[in-house]
Amino acid sequence: MRKYEIMYIIDPTVTDEARPKVIDDLNEIFISRGGELFEVNEWGMRDLAYEIQKHRKGYYVVLNVTCNEEARAEFDRICRIREDIIRHIIIRDER
Fold it and tell me: Burial letters for 48-66: b for 16+ Cβ neighbours within 10 Å, e otherwise?
């Protein structure tokens, strides 16, 4: 099990009612595969540094997790497929 810091940006057109479901679905990827979520930090709606898929804003979420390679790879795969995630990054935390 390794520690990761993960950030993803949710499409700004996702409604306030639907956003918690998106976050819970992505968190469940780690929980169902034996990972542990240490922190889920919702930064909220922020301006993007540059336009992504014709959006100038996005809803930022940062996770601190411990998980195995399978969970990390599945999260990466799901984020690439989902249309409501406009960008994500996974960084191995070596602290």
Answer: beeeeeeeeebbbbebebb
Domain with 82 in it? 2-92
| Cα(44)–Cα(27) distance, integer angstroms | 17
Instruction: Please answer whether residues 48 and 8 qualify as being in contact, where contact means their C-beta atoms are separated by less than 8 angstroms.
Output: no
User: At 83, which CATH number?
Assistant: 3.30.70.60
> How many structural domains are present in the chain?
1
| pLDDT given at position 93 | 84
d(CA 62, CA 93): 13
pTM: 0.90
The series of mean pLDDT values per 10 residues for the chain, 95 residues long, is 94 93 93 90 92 92 93 94 94 84
CA–CA–CA angle 4, 72, 23 (5° rounding): 80
The reported pLDDT for the residue numbered 35 is 87
